[in-house]
Amino acid sequence: xxxxxxxxxxxxxxxxxxxxxxxxxxxxxxxxxxxxxxxxxxxxxxxxxxxxxxxxxxxxxxxxxxxxxxxxxxxxxxxxxxxxxxxxxxxxxxxxxxxxxxxxxxxxxxxxxxxxxxxxxxxxxxxxxxxxxxxxxxxxxxxxxxxxxxxxxxxxxxxxxxxxxxxxxxxxxxxxxxxxxxxxxxxxxxxxxxxx
Length: 196
Prior knowledge:
Blueprint: E1 2-3, E2 6-11, H1 17-33, E3 41-46, E4 54-59, H2 66-89, H3 96-109, H4 113-127, H5 142-148, H6 171-191
Parallel strand pairs: 2-3
Antiparallel strand pairs: 1-2, 3-4
């Protein structure tokens, strides 16, 4: 919850993509709704892989002053609400692990044909569960597996059975809309000395 001038979200496992998304959405909502909230927000994972059994991800404040933070939060929340509404009409290709890997790889390799190809490979690796490595992917969720199948292509428009192509936002568009601002705030938080 909100602690002092920031937000702390504690989990007792590794900081997963789902944990980062949850903390990010709370950070953005608090930046918009709570007067005087100026972050930073931290996701702490006790028993994670970090030093001393604690892993931390920090999101920097969304702006230098309350008005700028609230305006930035309103913009991010507006995009998230548009995606939420789209998700009410058809399955939204926001797969926590695959989307996180795609966005992180795209960020490191660049948004080029080669970068997107590498990002699709990374997303495919995160999507699939692997028993030999005890990796649980997005496909472990039976609803996700039913809609997206055993090995989606992660092209710009992941085909969803029963939904005409182009009727819903594609994987790339959804992933970039959700993860780019999150990764920006996370990188700024790490530069300020707050974990990765």
